[in-house]
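Shift notes (night). Ran non-specific serine/threonine protein kinase while the centrifuge was going.
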Amino acid sequence: MIRPLSEYESCYKDIKIIGRGQFGIVYLVQQKSTQKEFAAKKIKGECSNTELDILFRLKHPNIINVYDCFRDENQIILIMDYCQKGDLWNMIQYRILEGKNRGYIQKVVEQWLVQLLMGLAYIHDNNVIHRDLKSSNILIKEDGQLKIADFGVAKILGGEKMAKTIAGSPFYLSPEISQGQDYTFSSDLWSLGCILFEMCTLKRAFEGDQFDKEILIQDQIEPTLTDIRTYSSELVNLIQSLLDVDAQKRPSAKELLRSSYIAKIMLQSFEKKSVKQQDMQKIGQVTMMQKKAHEKYQKQMSYVKQLLGNSQDSINAQSQVL
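Came back to this:
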């Protein structure tokens, strides 16, 4: 629902500035009626109807949720999820400033990868291409849940399923966009590969036109090199497949979710959540909040099963977990 800007101050109280971007300022705000905290993105000028349509259309645990909208002819305010840990880019920069020269451990990278794939698969299922996927547009809640944000240049693809306009950030642009060619959802997967590279190395994958291949595989490195983070060949191969210059060779988000490697990670994660929920039920400690969390889990699991289907990869993954 879009409301007049004049109603904003009667509904929300500004607390502090938590972010600044090219098009606006983000405030931590408190809803006066409930005392709940949200993020309010205040944008000068008009916001395209396409962006608003996309924001209100997409409802998924790994996509930033817009709850309210206020606007006039000079400004628009979007009320969104408040992500306490900020964005992934800043988390990486803090890690570097702390003197840590290693990327995140594989378990963390894998859990974040699954969340990003879940969000991207949902976005693409809705015929939306993000076009500006980068670490600064990945927000993180206090519990580690990732939210894909900033759909300012996103586009709804029609029957042609191709886009032509050059859009996005230089360090994450796919080769086809950089070369002025038509492109589709696979350009978002290239950007995802760049983000994963940053998680593993704390560096951008591409500085100019050079690709820094610095992800080390576990079974090809001496264990004595404790100052260097190493990763499994499965994860490294996945990142390399996303960074294939041939867009047609890049796997889709849904294809990756159906792969035995990702399916195994997903099933292990959901099985652990399910066991915890059963334990809570046994000891009679299921509060209303826990019931809602369980309902949310059931919806997510249903979506996971729908994505995995009955492919041989997903069957193999289940056999490794169960």
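The chain is about 40% helix and 20% strand. Confidence is low (pLDDT under 50) at residues 274-287, 317-322.
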